[in-house]
Amino acid sequence: MAVDILYFAWVRQKVGKGAERVTLPPDTTDIAGLIAHLAALSPGHAEAFAHAKQIRAAVNQDFVTPAHPVKDGDEVAFFPPVTGG
C-alpha cells in the first residue's frame, strides 16, 4: 500500500520536504500507525512527529482523527493546528 504525504508549515521544515510517496507496511492501517511509521523514517521525521498530538491530519482533504483508516492511494496531509497564510 502506498500513500501520498503532504507536509505543511513547521512539519515541512522539520521533515525537510513538502511531499513524498510512502509505501506502508501491512500493519499500518490508520493515521496513528502512519505517524509511527513516518517517525521512524529519519531524524527529521522523528522530530516532526515527536509531539504527534500537536499535528492535525487530513485524508483526501477531510480532517480526520488518529483512528481514521488509511487506504492505498490516499493523500494524507499533516500540519500544525494553526497555519497562517
Index terms:
85 residues; alpha+beta; five-stranded mixed sheet; globular
The DSSP helix count reads 3
| Annotation, overall tally of beta strands | 5
Report the C-alpha radius of gyration, rounded.
11 Å
Q: Specify the structural class.
A: alpha+beta
The percentage of residues in β strands lies in: 25-35%
Average pLDDT taken over every residue: 94
**Shape, principal axes of CA atoms:** globular
H/E topology pattern: EHEHHEEE
Gap from first CA to last CA = 33 Å
User: Which segments are poorly predicted (pLDDT under 50) over 5 or more consecutive residues?
Assistant: none
The main β sheet shows up as: 5 strands, mixed
What's the quaternary structure here?
single chain
Question: Could you explain the architecture of this structure?
Answer:
There is one protein chain. By secondary structure, the protein is α+β, with helices and mostly antiparallel strands. The chain has three helices and five strands. About 25% of the residues lie in helices and about 25% in strands.
How is the secondary structure organized here?
Blueprint: E1 2-7, H1 9-15, E2 19-23, H2 31-39, H3 43-48, E3 56-59, E4 62-64, E5 75-79
Parallel strand pairs: 1-5
Antiparallel strand pairs: 1-2, 3-4, 3-5
Summarize the structure.
By secondary structure, the chain is of the alpha+beta class.
